[in-house]
ATP-dependent RNA helicase (Cercophora scortea), 822 residues
Amino acid sequence: MAPGAAKGAGGAQRKQAHSTNKTEARGLKRKRDKEDLQKLKKAIDELDPKSPDLKTFTDLPLCEPTAAGLRASHFEVLTDVQRAAIPLALKGNDVLGAAKTGSGKTLAFLVPVLEKLYHEQWTELDGLGALIISPTRELAVQIFEVLRKIGRKHTFSAGLVIGGKNLKEEAERLGRMNILVCTPGRMLQHLDQTAGFDVDNLQILVLDEADRIMDMGFQSAVDALVEHLPKSRQTLLFSATQSKRVSDLARLSLKDPEYVSAHEEAVAATPTNLQQHYIITPLPEKLDTLWGFIRSNLKSKMIVFLSSGKQVRFVFESFKRMQPGIPLLHLHGRQKQIARMEITSRFSKATYACLFATDVVARGVDFPAVDWVIQADCPEDADTYIHRVGRTARYESKGRAVLFLNPSEEEGFLKRLEHKKVPIQKVHVKEAKKKSITAELQSHCFQSPDLKYLAQKSFVSYTRSIHLQKDKEVFKFDQLDLDGYAKSLGLPGAPQIRYQKGEDVKRLKNASREVISSGSESEGEDGIKKPKKPEVRTKYDKMAERQNQDVLSSHYRKLIDGNDAAEGASDDDEEDFLAVKRVLDDDALETAAGAATSDAAAAAKVVKIGNNEVIIDSHRREKMLKSKKKMLKFADKPTKIIFNDDGTARELYELQDLDDFENEGPAAELRKKFVEAAGAKVAEIDIEDKQAAKDRRREKRDRQKARERGEMEAEMADADGAGGLGPQLGGGDYSDEDPLALLRSLPMPGQDSGRSDDGDSDSGAQPSKKRAKKWFEDDSDAEEQARKKRKKEKGYKRVIEMDQEPDNLQDLEALAAGLLED
C-alpha cells in the first residue's frame, strides 16, 4: 500500500474513533441526566411539604440549573409563602397562595415553572409550556426580569407579551417561546388573531395577583382566555388577598387545589414593620395637606396614589410649576409603554423622588427603598389599601404609610380596615406645616389654559369616581364640598357634572352666577323688596365669561353653563361636552341670520394692512390693531431670499407644482414672456457692465499718467543733483568751496564738455579715459549699468502701485513691463 493511502486510512480511522467517542460521551451524559432526573423525582415524591427542616433553597430537591440560577441571584433563605407553596407545586398540585405583599410570591411560582419544564425535558420544538398572567404591564416586566435572573442556566426560551408593542413582531416570535409572561388582554388578542399559535401542550398556568385578574375588569378576558387552554394542566394562583369562591375555582378548572396562606393566622394582613397612619382632611384642603407633606419630606422616596389618571396629570403638572424641591414623576395607564417603563426605571434608581400614580403600580411592583406611601384619595376597598401600602416595607424592611380621609369617609372605611385586621393610627397635621396653595394654583390656571383644562377634567373624574363607588357607606357623594374642591384646584367655579340631576346642577354653580340669575332684588323680613348688594366679581369670574379668549373657553362655558338638555347624556361619554341650546325652524333661522348680518355690517370696520383687508367687527379686534405682533398674521407673506458667495441677494428658486403651472397659461406663452423678461434684464445688466468697465479703464489711464509724471519729476531731480555744474544757485553753503572750481569746470573752446560716460566731470586738463568694454557688453548695456549704479548709490527704489488686482491681459502686460524696467 502506498504511504499516502496508508496515511489517509489512518486519518479516517482516527476520525471514526473520535466520532465514536463523542457518541459514547453523549450517550453517557444522557444516561447520567436520566439517572439524576429519576433521583430528583424520587426526592420530590419523598418530600414532606410541611417539614420544619425546609429553611433554604438547598433543602429543596431542585435541578442543578435552577439551583445555580438562584445562587447567582443571591437567593438563599426561603420565605413563609415559598416554604409552603414550592413543595406542593413540585408535587404537581394546584396551589392557591395568599401572603403579605412583599413576601416573595414571585419566586414561589417561578421556581415550580422552571422545574416543571425541566422534568418534562422541554425543548423549543415542544412549543409553549408555561403561561404566566399578570394584571399590569409593570408587574409583568418585573416578573420577566426575575425569570431571566434565576433561569439564566436553563435553555428555555422566554418572552414578554404586553400591550404597547408591535403585535406583528410579537406574533413572529411567539411560536418559539417556551415560557410567556403576559397581560390578559394582549394574550387573548394573540390567541384570537395570531395564526399558528398553539397552546395545546401547555403544562402550567400561573396567575399573579389573581384577585385583581378575576375582578370585573378582567373577568371576561380571563374567561375567554381559559377556553383556549387545555384542561390537563397545573394551575397556580397567588395574591396578597386570595379568594376561595367556588365560581372562581370552577372558571379556572382547578383540580383539588391546595390553599396556602402565610398570614391567615397573623394579627394583620400588612407587614408588622409598616407604620400606618391616617389624617382627616376636608376635600378642599386635600391638596394643601399633600403639598405640605411633600415639602416636609424632601429627603424621602414616596409614592402618592390618586384615584384617576386625570388627577395624576393635574397634580403632577401643577406641583411641577410650583417646584417643591424634590424630583417629581407621574405614572398612569394612558401613557405609552416606553414612557411607563422609563419612569418605572427612573423611580427605581432614584434616591429621593415623588411618584404620582394610579393603581397600575398598586400591586406586586417592587420599588426598592420606598419610604412613604401616601393615599391622597381613599381606596375603593380594604384590599386595595393593603396592596397600595405594600409598595413599602418590602421583605423585612421598614416603611410608613399615610391615608387621607374626608370626614364623611372616616367611620365607614375604618370599619373595613378593622375587619381586615389592619392596625392604623390617627395623626394630626402640625399647624406650622399647613400652607394654602389655592391662590398659587388659581394664578397658574389663569395664566395657563392647558392647566385649567386639566383641573376641570380632574374635578370631573374625581366626582365621577365617587359617584360610581359601590360602597355607599364610605363614599357619600352628597356630603362632598364640591364648590370648595373646585376652588382648591384653581377653578373659578365648579364644572357641571352630567350625572347629577335636578336642582343639584344649579347648586354647583359659583355664587356670582347665582346672584346674576336670581335677579337684582331680595325680600326682607318685613316683606319689602330691597335691592341686593352687588356681588364682588373677581378676575377669574370675568375670565370665565370672555367669549374669544382661546380654544378652551367654549369648553369651559359648556362645563359651567350646561343646561338640562345635556343631562340625559350617557355617563360613559365623558369626553362629549356638547349641549343643544335651542332649535330654530327655517323662518326663525333666516330672521336671526339676517339680523346678525345687519348688526355686524353696521359695526364692522375695514382696515387695509399691506395687500390684505381686515374686518374689525369687535372691540378685541380693534384693540388688536395696537399690537404689531398680532397683526403680523395679516401682513403680506415675506419672500425668502438667499445670498451667493459674493454676498449678492437673490430670491430662492423653488419648483412649482404641475397644477399651478398649468393654471398660469400655455407653456409657449409663458416661455416667451420669460425669454423677453430675461432678455431685458440681461440688456440692463450689460449696459451697467460696459459702463463699469469704461470707468475702470479711465481710472487706470489716469493712474498711469500720474505715475509717469512722478517718475519724470524724480529723474529730473536726480539729474540736477548729479550734474557737472556743482552746487545749485541759492542752495547750500559755499564757504568751503574753491572759487575757481566753477570756471575750471566749464569747457574750453574746441573741446567737449569733458563729461565722462558716467556723468562725472574732469578735474584736470587731460581728457578722461573711457572704461574698457567687455566682450559681452554693448553701448546700451553700459548705459543701463550706469543708470542702475546711480540709482543704487542714491538709494532709489521703484514702487509700482496697484489699486486692484489685474483682471485682464492689458493689466498683466503693464505690470510685467513695470517690473522689467528695474
About this structure: The radius of gyration is 50 Å. Confidence is low (pLDDT under 50) at residues 501-533, 562-583, 722-737, 750-778.
